[in-house]
Design goal:
The protein has ten helices and eight strands. The protein is α/β, with parallel strands linked by helices. The termini are far apart.
């Protein structure tokens, strides 16, 4: 596997947060996030979402971001300097969230579950740190909803390699469709799901390709696919994305459920 280009990945994550902001706002309002809530941002990465949430969504609340990567947490802390004490970051994992029981009102995982080999364990931890009557919400991708036309000849092989590589690490590139079922299996109440899509018509061909396929191009290599084949697909996409007939669409799925009241 090739080394991830860290600056390029940070740029992609920042663009992703800004791009999906209207869709994410709709999702969070439907899921019941309120201005005074304490929000857990699990898998917060460089903190782009956490800072936006504290500034624009939770003027009376607070955000705790949790991530396993100390380098990303350093970036997040610096990014949050203008927000003050209402945003804090802690090192931890989905399997061990460094918070006490019933600490938050709303636990949220964004594009995290595609990477997890034990999603049920993560949900058990999210449930533990969320108060009775609080909300657990998940948003993730589903490659079954990725559409590109015209498509490079090697794109199906690239997508298969991406799914295989993710699965070998314990993840799932088609987890989006499973989020509601995971919430139900965790014993949470009234699980609900909605689908959200965005297209090259919304953001332009270059941004669409960078956000939806850029990560795959950076991390894929032997044994999943020949690097030369990856380069060929990327090069062809760079040409196709600027053609008058290019269209791409990606699918995200959000699901939420309520933690049962204490008996």
């Amino acid at each position: 596997m090739e080394t991830l280009d860290a600056p390029a990945e940070l740029s992609r994550l920042d663009a992703q947060v800004r791009l999906v902001r209207p869709l994410e706002l709709d999702f969070l309002e439907r899921a019941g996030l309120r201005r005074h809530h304490h929000l857990l941002d699990l898998g917060c990465g460089p903190g782009f979402f956490a800072v936006w949430a504290a500034q624009d969504l939770l003027p009376l609340g607070q955000v705790t971001g949790v991530d396993a990567d100390p380098a990303l947490l350093d970036i997040a802390t610096a990014h949050a300097a203008t927000v003050g004490a209402r945003v804090t970051f802690r090192q931890g994992t989905a399997a061990r969230i460094p918070l006490p029981d019933a600490a938050v009102d709303f636990a949220y995982a964004r594009f995290l579950f595609q990477h997890l080999d034990a999603p049920a364990d993560a949900l058990a931890e999210m449930r533990r740190v969320t108060r009775p009557g609080g909300t657990i919400a998940l948003v993730d991708t589903d490659d079954g909803g990725l559409v590109v036309h015209p498509a490079p000849r090697g794109l199906p092989a690239l997508l298969r390699a991406s799914r295989d590589a993710q699965a070998a690490r314990g993840g799932d590139r088609e987890v989006g469709r499973k989020l509601k079922a995971l919430l139900h299996a965790a014993g949470l109440e009234s699980p609900t799901a909605r689908s959200y899509s965005f297209s090259s018509e919304d953001v332009g061909g270059a941004a669409f390709v960078a956000i939806t396929l850029g990560f795959k191009a950076q991390v894929l290599g032997p044994p999943w696919i020949d690097p030369a084949e990856v380069a060929s697909v990327v090069d062809e996409l760079q040409t196709l994305r600027d053609s008058p007939g290019f269209f791409g669409q990606a699918l995200g799925i959000g699901a939420w459920a309520r933690v049962p009241d204490a008996r």
